[in-house]
Design brief:
CATH topology: TIM Barrel
Number of domains: 1
Structural class: alpha/beta
Length: about 325
């Protein structure tokens, strides 16, 4: 990086809206050091997804919460944007939790407030398949249910980011109509550049932007292209969204996971329907871009015409803006 960009990157708020670390109480959170080493300021880490039941999600959340709070010299558990600023000022890494799908609620709207109190600041409505609240992107998309509408309102009320990634097309449009606050696709790429059921249409991108929301760049090779995580490919996705809706609606949600010493094969084999055939999940050696590639991506953004303000917006200011609105309780 040129010296000017190095300084910009050092000073910037770098916000990764979603990590793809497999949620388990056995995960060693030392693996999160990869983010601050790469210059990241904040990360949302998932504590559960719809393949797990509510008990397993709560067990993972309890374990992660304890490890974060037991290391106050390294981590700040985020409740609002002021905590992120405090973490940056103290040279610590800011974290909060997210949940991918509504099975973790076990049909009980009151669980949203419980999860919020424990540090969950973002929830997705489905993880690929339909549930009691919403339709999934790999399913016969049923749209947002009556329970799902209650969930949107309760998330708005308690102060939690409404996240449409992994949900079905019809469902996401329903969610974005229902929410009174900005909505995000924390880790989704434009399907106009690469056709995949996990990617999102121009209509979804435009509707998200109309709420004041943000679309986060997913670093998984099968969502970027033909298992391609090259800088030019990532840049194409960022530029596409920027050209469509403007620089204020792009961000980072790499969905990245360092290697974990947990056998995830058991749960993957138990429910293969969550990752259906024909969607490239069986690609040998799936590649994944992560935070270490951000300096190179910043270089590419600058070379392609993004000015300093647009780069800072992409790195974190856009998601920070959404959080300032969404994390305020009604």
């Amino acid at each position: 990086m040129q010296e000017h960009l190095q300084q910009l990157y050092r000073d910037a708020l770098v916000w990764d809206a979603h990590a793809g670390v497999f949620p388990s109480p056995e995960v060693d959170l030392n693996l999160l050091d990869e983010w601050p080493r790469a210059g990241a300021s904040y990360l949302s880490i998932n504590v559960g997804f719809d393949v797990m039941d509510s008990q397993d999600t709560l067990a993972t959340l309890a374990a992660y919460r304890r490890r974060v709070l037991d290391n106050p010299d390294r981590f700040v558990l985020v409740g609002d944007n002021a905590d992120i600023e405090r973490a940056r000022g103290e040279g610590k890494f800011a974290l909060s939790f997210d949940i991918e799908g509504m099975n973790a609620l076990n049909g009980d709207i009151n669980m949203i407030g419980v999860y919020h109190a424990l540090g969950v600041r973002q929830m997705l409505f489905a993880y690929n398949l339909n549930n009691a609240a919403a339709g999934g992107c790999h399913d016969d998309d049923s749209g947002l249910t009556d329970f799902g509408r209650q969930v949107v309102h309760e998330m708005n009320r308690v102060g939690m980011i409404v996240d449409c990634s992994h949900a079905g097309h019809r469902t996401t449009l329903d969610i974005m109509r229902e929410s009174s606050k900005p909505v995000v696709f924390s880790h989704s790429n434009p399907s106009a550049l690469w056709q995949h059921q996990r990617n999102i249409s121009d209509e979804q991108i435009l509707t998200c932007a109309a709420t004041g929301g943000v679309i986060g760049l997913n670093g998984m090779g099968i969502f970027l292209g033909d298992n391609d995580i090259g800088i030019d490919t990532m840049l194409r996705h960022v530029r596409y969204v920027s050209d469509l809706v403007g620089n204020e609606h792009i961000g980072i949600g790499f969905d990245y996971s360092p290697k974990v010493d947990v056998d995830i094969g058991v749960i993957l084999r138990s429910r293969p329907d969550y990752w259906p055939a024909g969607q490239q999940y069986d690609t040998p050696g799936i590649k994944h871009a992560g935070p270490a590639q951000l300096p190179e991506l910043v270089d590419a953004l600058a070379d392609s015409g993004f000015d300093d303000a647009a780069i800072r917006a992409f790195l974190g200011e856009n998601f920070h803006r959404v959080a300032a609105s969404a994390w305020t309780s009604d």
